[in-house]
Amino acid sequence: MRYSALEYYDPRITDSQNLKFREGKSIIMNKKMTRKLAAGLAAIAMLTTAMPVSSLTALAAPGEVFTSNFDNGMGDWSMYKEPKGDATLKADGGKLALNIKSVGDKNYAVQMGLGLIPLYKNAKYRLSYEISCTTERYVEGMIQQNGGTYQAYVWDGLNVGPTAQKVEHEFTMKEDNDLMAKLVFNCGLQENDPANLPAHTIYLDNVKLECLDDSAADKTIAGAKTASIMTNQIGYKPNSQKIAVFRGVTNQTEFTVADASTKKVVYTGKLSAKMGNSGAGEDDWQGDFSSVKETGKYIITCTGLEDSYPFEISANPYSDLFDDSVKMLALQRCGEAVSGGKFSHPACHTSLATIYGTNQKIDVTGGWHDAGDYGRYVVAGAKAVGDLLYAYLANPNKAILDETKYELDWMLKMQADNGGVYHKVTCESFPGFVMPEDETAELIVTPISSTATADFCASMALAAQAYKTADSAYAAKCLAAAEKAWKYLEANPNFNFSNPSGVTTGEYGDKTDKDERYWAACQLYVTTGEAKYLQAAESIGTKDGLDWATVGDYGNIALLTNPKADKSSSAYTKAKSTVISEADTFVSNSSKNPYGVALTKFDWGSNMTVANAGIICGLAYQLTGEAKYLNAAEAQLNYLLGSNPLSTCFVTGYGTVSPKNPHHRPSVKQGEAMKGMLVGGVNSALEDDAAKAYLKEAAPYKCWIDNADSYSTNEITIYWNSPLTYLLTITDTNGSTTPSQDPNPHEQIFTGYSGSE
Ligand code: G3I
Ligand code: 9MR
Ligand code: ZN
After folding, report:
1. How confident is the model at residue 21 (pLDDT cuts 50, 70, 90)?
2. Distance 687 CA to ligand 1 centre (A)
3. Ligand 2: residues within 6 Å at CB?
4. Do 725 and 325 meet the contact criterion of CB atoms below 8 Å apart?
5. Which residues have C-beta within 8 Å of that of residue 252, sequence separation ≥ 6?
6. What is the distance in angstroms between the CA of the first residue and the CA of the last residue of the chain?
7. How far is the CA of 595 from the centre of ligand 1 (A)?
8. What pTM value is reported for the model?
9. Kind plus residue range of the DSSP H or E element containing 169
10. In sequence order, what DSSP letters do the residues of 678-696 get, joined into one string?
């Protein structure tokens, strides 16, 4: 078989609908196809912008790209299955053997493939392999985009059978450079096949991709512009510490702060000594301009370097950001129509959900979509609720209270009659890049977990405290749900959740539920004043952590911000020393990092971890009044908003440079980043193909890419936004008010509760 054609193929639509373009043939499309193509091209355009220059990977001269002969196992080859497909993949006698029991319900329901293949626009390639099958059937072999529209760069429809055939296909890459293409064989349900194919095995051998000619290829990967002078791109409050970071300094010693429009210099300062920043693979210099306090719009300049992006100094620089950080949650609402411009959509996920392994159906509509996917997960929701309601208690804001109730109402539906709480509700697997109302597969409620139950218990106890004044009946309902969950926890030991067979959505597994139980006990104690909960918290022992897996610090926050706290109790003093010692580590890390960031390691969701560190420092400031803690807390905010090695404001739609291609299904589908979302950020573990393809040369602190396929660096979640909301609230301590004030003063919230003694 030999084509020199480029064809487009979308494995997510059926064969007959597929758009195939062969050179020399006319293209006939109906309206639906034209729309699909237009959407596809828009998505491709989105996916191929803003690749950091640092990730440039050059291909050697023409020659072999890869060969797989399967003599020593299957290497990086893997299988992809949709829920209805059933197959196994292994290397067998020097061949790759795909043993298929069921072809499932789509052509890609059973796939074998090899990812991370670099293809350069205008380069010529030859793909070759030997394929056979124990039965006569039809399969497709192609190299495709692994994400986006899954367009094929080269495609063959193959009639395979017991006699091995050699397939050889020369093609020119016509699309933009793609360093993460995937060679796949669609071995699922094919229209050309007889119904009820018997179980069979497909063998593959001597797979080879060669580059024949790359003289016309342009191997430049369009890079994100990296700035030379970094600041918080939104700005600063007048009394805050303000430090700009410089790179590429040669022998300059001074910098200036100038009015952004008149360019009039308002301040001249001295650059610090050079600071090494090996994690970011650069040297940096700092410029402190804290003494500039007059409100206005400014830039930072330094001879020989490009000016900074403009930023403002104002009493209230983050009020829009605060509002949008909460509004994002409203746009993530599930189960009711959402109105939000391009992101409006009709009610989604409204059908009853099946309890896993049973025929029982329950109503679990509502809540927020977790992230770039549409799952709803209790432990993730609890982290968000914790941030929002502790933020509310620190600085009452009605928008927080109203929006959080939407999630709490859903969580209440996730509690089983026995008091335990189901771990999550999702479909079996993640959908493609569709709007939420178009994810219509069966909803499955996965079994109760003790982490979800304890997180639920803590969240409901916290809600009972937070809603006491605004809605006492609701507070009472939440407290009753919390007490019921607590009884369940007392009767049931730790059991870890892992995805039940057939379910492949987010796991949110955990090694222990001790920290969740600690949070629940502390919060129940603060809400009810009952000594048994304090005893329970003490017997579990003080815990820490502010993420979905470790939540002990929420228990500490509950104890430490309890207006009736007994400050001499051992639980209180231990909570305080835990928080202060964490804050001291963050202050120390922050002082050593040119950008002031408190982390020394960046994992999946590091922007949350940065915000969490800021929250802990903010709390330490409230407890001690020491300025170093407030400075460190604000430094974390500055990092998130632009003072970082990527010179990016990590909240969509804010600052001069922000993520345009978040891994967020509605944003991909609409071709525009929804505003007000904090992306996951730097993750040096390279946990998705886009990160692996484009960041393999990047310094650890720069492993982030504005690519919609990079779910491990550029996704968004409700529980990455919520710590931003909390951080904005807790740093709002020196005069200005970010959130609009709730009419009910803080103290009233506790009326009617005994509190602790
Ligand atoms: O904590 C370890 C650290 O000790 C270790 O050094 C490091 C090395 O890689 O890994 C760290 O663990 C990481 C963990 O997140 C905490 O950061 C894991 O590698 C990483 O795989 C794990 O990622 C989680 C991801 O799901 C995959 O399970 C994210 O935290 C979590 O936020 C994310 O959640 C997903 C949901 O499943 C589905 N919905 C979207 C959501 C966001 O991406
Ligand atoms: O979209 C999914 C994202 O929300 C998750 O965080 C991520 C990790 O579990 O998985 C994403 O889904 C990807 C899947 O894991 C692999 N195939 C591509 C999917 C992205 O569309
Ligand atoms: Zn939904």
Report:
1. very low
2. 9
3. 371-373, 430, 506, 711, 715
4. yes
5. 271, 302, 303, 304, 305
6. 83
7. 24
8. 0.88
9. strand 165-172
10. BB----TT--SHHHHHHST
Residue whose C-alpha is closest to residue 256's, from 267, 264, 270, 243: 267
Report the pLDDT value the prediction gives residue 160, as an integer from 0 to 100.
Answer: 97
Q: Which residue has the tokens 């939000």?
A: 340
Coil/strand/helix, residue 449: coil
Distance of CA 242 to the CA centre of its chain: 29
Q: Crossing angle of helices 450-466/378-394, nearest 10°?
A: 20
Ligand 2 atom at minimum distance from 663 CA? 1
- Name the DSSP letter for residue 447: P
Quick one: tokens of 380?
A: 């993730």
Dist CA 645 CA 588 (whole Å): 19
Rg (CA), the chain: 28
pLDDT at 221: 76
Q: Which two tokens stand for residue 335?
A: 């189960």
Q: How far is CA 377 from the centre of its chain?
A: 14
Q: What is the 504 CA–ligand 2 centroid distance (Å)?
A: 10
- Residue with CA nearest ligand 1 atom 6: 603
Would residue 437 be called left, alpha or beta, if left means φ above 0 and alpha means ψ between -120 and 50 degrees?
Answer: alpha
- At residue 549, φ and ψ (nearest 5 deg) are -95, -30
C-alpha span between 574 and 522 (Å, rounded) = 12
Helix-helix angle 450-466:398-413, to 10 degrees: 140
**3-state class (DSSP) for residue 185:** strand
| Tokens 């309206």, located at residue | 31
Q: How far apart are CA 629 and CA 738, in angstroms?
A: 19
- Reported as type and span, the H/E element at residue 403 is helix 398-413
Distance CA 201, CA 161 (A): 10
Does residue 19 carry a pLDDT above 70? no
> Using a 6 Å cutoff on CB, does residue 715 contact ligand 1?
yes
**Following CA atoms 663, 669, 670, 676 in sequence, which dihedral angle do they give, to the nearest 10 degrees?**
-20
